[in-house]
Amino acid sequence: MDLFLQYLVNGAVTGSTYVLVAVGLTLIFGILGVVNFAHGEFYMIGGYAGIFAVTAMNLPLLPAIVFVLAVAACVGLAAEAILHRPMKDRDATSSIVSSFGLAVALQNAALIVMGPQPQRLNLDASKMPLLSELPTEFGPVFLPHQRMLIPLTMVALIGALYAVLRYTWTGRSLRAMAQHSTVARLCGVRVDRVAMVTFATGAALAGIAGMLMSSVFLVYPIVGNMIALKAFTVVILGGMGNVIGAAVAGLLLGVIESLTSAYVSNSTRDIVGFVIVIGVLLFLPNGLFGKSVGRS
Amino acid sequence: MTRLSRRSFLTAAGVSLATPYIARAQSNAPIKVGGMLPMSGAASIEGRQVLLGLQFAVEEINAKGGLLDRKIELVIEDDESNSTKGVTAVRRLIERDKVPFIVGTYASAVVVAAVKVAAEYKVPMLSGGSTAAAGTDQNTPGDPWFFRSWPDSNKQGEDTAKAIVEKFKKTKVAIIHDNTNYGVTLADQVTRVVTAVGGVIVSRDSFNAGEQDFSSMLTKVRTLRPEAVYIGGWAGDGANIVRQAAEIGLRAQFVGSGSMLSDDFIKLAGPASEGFAVATVFEPSTPNPVGRAFADRFRARFNQDANTFSSIGFDSTSIGLEAMRRVGRPDGQEIQKMIRGGMKDFALAQGPAGTTAAFNEKGSVDFPDFIAVIKDGKRRLEV
Q1: Does B268 touch chain A (CB under 8 A)?
Q2: What architecture (CATH level 2) is domain B154-280?
Q3: What is the pTM (predicted TM-score) of this model?
Q4: Which of A3, A86, A101, B7 has a CA 20 to 30 Å removed from the CA of B253?
Q5: Does the distance separating the beta carbons of A261 and B42 come in below 8 Å?
Q6: What stretches of B67-209 show up as alpha helix (H) in DSSP?
């Protein structure tokens, strides 16, 4: 039982990364209808940007996070200019195919610039103010500061995103676009700006996830492949375009994987998520939390 | 005044300029020897380390005046760890540069493809880092064209597994391996060897290569209280596992597969790599006096420590050059015969003191691997 709680927490930590990556993906899909297969590369770039900020620029944690957010957001803007702007009036397959191309291009660029060997971000979270005062043992559960940082950041960023979507003009225009882009445009929403904001936000969230995870795990040029697949799983589970659905489904997937490797076998952990996705697509095509109302 | 046409003047000038060179080409133009390594692509880091060994061996010979009264010239081809490129590279070295032997290469799959071509041309190859048993297993016993002057990966795995029980005295062993052919083969072998020498396998877990989160699996392994944990897989995954194990407080003797024999592994795993054990054929601190002398000379020349890769490149090249000296001419077929049987007195930098290039009929040299243990961020040989 003690271990069960530990497994839950382990799952919540990896689940938090899935949430950060998947929320951006679901935003881009929900608002712009772009299926972005290069999303995992935003994660990878975030990891390398973090290493650059901390080791080459010697930035402390918070400025480093800001730097990573900025770099990832710029990459997101560039991706928008490639994947969305020239293709928004074309068939959706065009942007899908070009997002594959972008993913391969970014991976190979990373291979040339950073090399194939995995790298790690040396970030000592246990020396950070505030965080270092928190305990690392909660009854039977042990959670090092390094890992604790991930769910905390996830909650803060997703909370902020939710507030922006709910209460600001930008958020309202994003949601209006998601509901009906023509009507949104008629009401004065600047569609091209919304597209840029969406891509920048999505990429920034994935970039932060990449940075935080590269201090716990490792970053290498093709690290984005698996994380993108996981994020797609989460997006489908949560219902395409559903932000809160993605947040819940991300945590759920993390926990399911953790329990699978603890109680079934570690080699099946990656299979479970995909099996569930196939089941969901067959029986609940709108996702676990999707509403079954068709768009007008 | 005799009129000299421009053409005949140029011809005469050309002949008079070229004559000394043509004459020299017949007598003492450098002898070209071949090197084939991954200079770009996935294994380029390892390839460049091996290359230093090749260059160092040739430099030393040339400093002593060369071989057979001629200088040695090393011709390097990049195979990019790609079998097709490797086959082309071998052809080019043999047809264009007429090399009598080739040192190469690092990737075993490329070796298997390339050595077929080299054998057709009667040019022997000496491993540039390839350790898989497949490299020497494809040789016709008794007539090998691919030579590897150290034990194959099977022997390495066996020595590692034995060390867990016999050297570290740990009998409860947990195995963690990736799902690649490499990881599964190693795990099977460790299971077999450990049980044969009186150990018990308490658990066996696998993961997908490149997986990032091992915390739940390791938490489960911890409850079984293993005395030793064997990891079979790539260095990056191994480093990740060792670090996460330290984080959750899984304390045991960690032992890894040959891929974790790199300084990158130590860098990635950080302090968690302390005490980690791995099999090796050479370290600068080797008790082998030939190896120690090589390490000292290498350090003086390159201002960096020699490692397994550079020692491999050095030994393979030295064997080829020495065999050519004993034969007396750059003839591939004769050199192959000499390496096969006539080098049993030639001391190597790798392996324990007294290791010589005594190739067995499959083209491999057998000696016990060292078990290195990481201490203060460096691999050390406990002898």
Answers
A1: yes
A2: 3-Layer(aba) Sandwich (3.40)
A3: 0.79
A4: A3
A5: no
A6: 83-95, 108-120, 133-137, 153-166, 181-196
